[in-house]
Amino acid sequence: MKKAKDDNQNFAKAILNVRRDNKLTQEQFAEKIGVTRQAVSRWEMGISVPNINTITLISEKFGVSIDVILKATENVTEKRAASIKKTRNYEFLLLFIGIAGLITLPFLAKWEQLKSMESFKTAYEHSSDYILEYPLSIILMFALLLIGLDIYIIIKKRR
Question: In the prediction, which pLDDT does 81 show?
Answer without folding.
Answer: 59
